[in-house]
Amino acid sequence: MHSEPALDEAIDVNRDPESADTVELKLRDGTFAGPAGVLTMTGADRAANIFASGTADIPGVEIDGVNSEDGADQPRGDVLIVKAPPSSFTVIEVAIAVR
Predict the structure, then answer these.
(1) In this structure, is residue 14 part of a structural domain?
(2) What is the CATH number of the domain that holds 27?
(3) pTM for the complete prediction?
(4) Does the pLDDT value for residue 52 go beyond 70?
(5) pLDDT given for residue 37 in this prediction
């Protein structure tokens, strides 16, 4: 019997306005089943309130001062390293296969 990989997520909130965070995910009981999806949001103004604009829940709407980048990072063996830029919110989604 072959089971489908499980999806899991990690979130990094980097409040430092000058330094990037290094996020390291290491698996003990599974293997990465492909590249990790990485979504990062940054903003020019830390005080930006996307909920006040009334557009926070509308997919695809651009908000002044908020930048979004969608990408992928490739794990190396059982380790995945992602750099989160200064003043950012990063969601990392990975598929994990049981060993």
Answers:
(1) yes
(2) 2.60.40.1180
(3) 0.77
(4) no
(5) 95
Residue 1 lies inside a defined structural domain of this protein: no
Q: Which domain holds residue 41?
A: 6-98
Residue 68, number of CB atoms within 10 A of its CB:
13
Give CA–CA dist 58/13, Å, rounded.
22
How many domains is the chain built from? 1
**Residue whose C-alpha is closest to residue 42's, from 73, 18, 58:** 18
Distance CA 90, CA 92 (A): 6
Q: Say yes or no to pLDDT of 50 above 60.
A: no
Which residue has tokens 């390291």? 24
Radius of gyration (Cα) for the chain, nearest Å? 16
15-16-21-23 Cα dihedral, nearest 10 degrees: -20
Mean pLDDT across 76-90: 93
